[in-house]
Amino acid sequence: MPFIDSKVSVKVTPEQKTELKQRLGQAIALIPGKSESWLMVNIADEQSMYFRGDDSEPIAFVQVNIYGGENDAAFRKMTAELTKIYGDVLGVAPDHMYIKYAASMDWGWNGSNF
């Protein structure tokens, strides 16, 4: 049950959303046991975001929420890949992006909890 929640300061075209969705679907497999078949993605664009008091550069905040335990090695690989994806697709520089990971055993789906 992974969920990738993206907030970005730039406008995202429909084509860019499709590319992000596809590349995030591939990237989630870097976390063992996760796949696109269970991935939910949110892309909130044109957010009023400031980094270091400035809003002149593209900015992104990405949260990766997963069902299960933490995996530091996989999260490091995922950070490198997410940095590349958001840089390639939206022009977000690595130093203008935060990525937060949250792992939890408390997930509900289809009317019950896992």
Describe the structure.
The protein has 114 residues and is of the alpha/beta class. The protein has helices at residues 14-27, 72-90, and strands at 3-8, 40-44, 60-67, 97-104, 108-109, 112-113. The relative contact order is 0.25.
Q: Helical amount among residues, as a percent range?
A: 25-40%
Number of beta strands: 6
Strand and helix order? EHEEHEEE
Do you know the CATH topology?
A: Macrophage Migration Inhibitory Factor
Structural class: alpha/beta
Total domains, how many?
Answer: 1
Please render the helix and strand layout as text.
Layout: E1 3-8, H1 14-27, E2 40-44, E3 60-67, H2 72-90, E4 97-104, E5 108-109, E6 112-113
Parallel strand pairs: 1-2, 3-4
Antiparallel strand pairs: 1-3, 5-6
Helix pairs in contact: 1-2
Briefly say what this structure is:
With 114 residues, this protein is of the alpha/beta class. It is built from 2 helices and 6 strands; from the N terminus they run E-H-E-E-H-E-E-E.
Key features?
114 residues, alpha/beta, two-stranded antiparallel ribbon, Macrophage Migration Inhibitory Factor, 27% strand, 29% helix
